Amino acid sequence: MPLFLQRQINTLKKMLLNLGALCEEQVRSSIESVVSRDVELAQRVIEGDKKIDLLEIDVEEECLHTLALHQPVAFDLRYVVAVLKMNNDLERIGDHAKSIAAQAKYLASEGEVSEPPFDLDAMGRRVEQMLRHALDAVVNIDVELAHQVRVLDDEVDIMHASMYGRAIELMRDHPHQTEQMVHYINVSRQLERIADHACNIAKDVLYITEGEIPRHGRLRRDRAAAEEANETSDAE
Amino acid sequence: MHTTLTILLALALATTVVVAVVLRRRVRRLREALSGQREHHRQLTERLGGVERRRSELEAVLSSMVEGVLAIDGEERVISLNRAAALMLSLEPKRAVGRPIQEVVRNAALQGLVAEVLSGSASVPASGELSLRLNPGSSTDDRSIQAHAASVRDAGGRHAGAVVVLHDITRLRRLESVRRDFVANVSHEIKTPISAIKAAVETLLDDEYMPVGPRQNFTGIIARQTDRLDAIIEDLLSLTRLEQEGASVVDEIEPHPVASVLRAACETCQAKAHAKSIELRIDTEPVTAQVVPTLLEQALVNLIDNAIKYSPAQTVVQIKAERRNEEVMISVADEGRGIEPEHLPRVFERFYRTDRARSRQLGGTGLGLSIVKHIAESLGGKARVTSQLGEGSTFTLTFRGGRETTELSETEAATDASVAGSLSPASDRTRESPPAESA
Q: Can you list the alpha helix ranges (DSSP code H) found in chain A?
């Protein structure tokens, strides 16, 4: 590979990881602000999102620059495309963190609930772990770690799904806490979305190494099977 | 014929001589060159040794520093890091060296700092505070790290990289927050009884013709809250005294048998224990410890009083003293509800409460354990707590053991045991209650 392309790709990686570090901290702080009812911290998270938005634009421009000037192929092309996509996911993660912080501000201004509808601490820690693993997988192009992220995502999905029932129960038992519960449901949904984006990042790592798009595997297999069936019926 | 032979011979001889002379000269020159080489080699080895020595000296200095030091080249790659930096950032030096900082440490603040210095926009060293998580996944191990970054320039004055110095200020930050909490708590704790008193007094003033019943109610409130205020201020004063006299207490420390102090403390608390049918069980080896008896008694009374407060009725509070090597361990164990693990590290803090409402209802000032810890520390000992939720808590005080022979302490302990109850300063208050061992 030409040296300047290598250097360009290294720069891209550094920029992406810088954005990743920011997002990781934003997510952590946003969860912390809900747990400790810290309005100041929540406000810092909301302000901090601007920096992520600006960085996202920088990364995207750098990617387009690389594509246009160096016309990478094979692994390098996949890498640049994956960075473009991960960049997008990270920016969305930043938005969700901001949104959690907004819920935190509201929850802190209201009375404390008797019991949140889900184990915020456990779910938050799981989501943080997913994001950390996903970014670690990007650093080392670690396929094993990327697979682990997808396993963790299932756990988060289960946590999120079981939260609804509990929230409804709690609303019935303590009708005056309904508003807080709605906000907790939102927090849970944002966390679940962050987990999904982390999962996407992990899938992009698989895409870089394997060159196959791992998303919607079943759908694509079904389509392939349908096409095959069509062909055989045409032949007949 | 003969002459030709002679001439030939002479010629041969002459040639040999010439060759020999030339050869000898060449050998001499070679030898000289060789010795020059040797000298050169010796100098080179010496110089290399010097460089090596200086390098290892530098490394030794860096690795024994408390501050973390991180060197980064112009391409943002880690050149080297010392042991402290590796520990703070939880890195493996071998894996980190040669890789970009963005890959190695995922901390936006640190990355930003390095980028700022390398871009040359900061002419003066840049600094910032980072919050790092030592064990990813746990929320308890947040560390605050102060980082200073300065650019490194080569001989030509160009940017060659950056040096980051990391300083762990977690303790400092923690102390700051403890102090802030303390001021807030003192104000709050004092304000609460004062508000109650104020409300009662205002009501009394407003209604001149209030019947005796309610009037007594209100004066009762005033009396109770004044007592509370008095208890808080008394505790605060004794804490301050302990802090100020911390140094002078050292002179009064002397070997003293533990058993007598334990008994005296138990007798002080006997009435409260009796009221809840709690048995105070003393189990002590005849040991002596390096203490000031009055202070040790105060600490023990606080601990036993707490144990009684937080135990359900008809349980046992076990008070033990035993010698472990050079140390004497005195423990007070209850069968209460226990303390949640997250509160354990903080229970000795002033006004720290695991459950505000319950603790206030039980009449604590929030300073008892803090006093215990201060006493233990001013006597050169330690105060610790272990707890199992639902099974109870054990508070342990550790002091240096007495130096003299065990026989002496044994006889002293025996005499103490026989006179306990009649000589104890608190015995008048607990006369009606049965002796500690059979409660």
A: 3-35, 39-70, 74-109, 120-140, 143-173, 178-210, 217-235
**Residue closest to A65 by CA, chosen among A107, A15, A24, A31:** A15
Question: What CA–CA distance (Å, rounded) separates B260 from B409?
Answer: 11
- Angle at B436 (CA atoms; ends B431, B439), nearest 5 degrees: 95
ipTM: 0.75
Mutate to test the interface with A, among B101, B106, B181 (most CBs of A within 10 A): B106
CB proximity A24 to B under 8 Å: yes
Return the pLDDT at B356: 63
The answer to whether the beta carbons of residues B87 and B68 sit under 8 Å apart is yes
Torsion angle, alpha carbons of A65, A66, A68, A69, to 10: 100
| Minimal CA separation from B34 to chain A, in Å | 46
Kindly identify which residue of chain B lies nearest to residue A52, measuring between CA atoms. B108
CA B129 to chain CA centroid, nearest Å: 21
- What pLDDT is attached to residue A34? 92
In the prediction, which pLDDT does B134 show?
A: 54
DSSP string, B130-171: EEEESSTT-SS-EEEEEEEEEEEE-TTS-EEEEEEEEEE-HH
What region, left, alpha or beta, does residue B364 occupy, with left being phi > 0 and alpha being psi -120 to 50 degrees? beta
CA–CA separation, B222 and B27 (whole Å):
115
**Predicted TM-score of the model (pTM):** 0.64
Residues 6+ apart with CB under 8 A from B99: B77, B78
Nearest chain B residue (CA) to A130: B137
Q: Which two tokens stand for residue A118?
A: 């889900």
Q: For A125, which of B76, B102, B137 is closest by C-beta distance? A: B137
Provide the terminal-to-terminal Cα distance of chain A, rounded to the nearest Å.
Answer: 49
DSSP secondary structure code for residue A214 in this structure: -
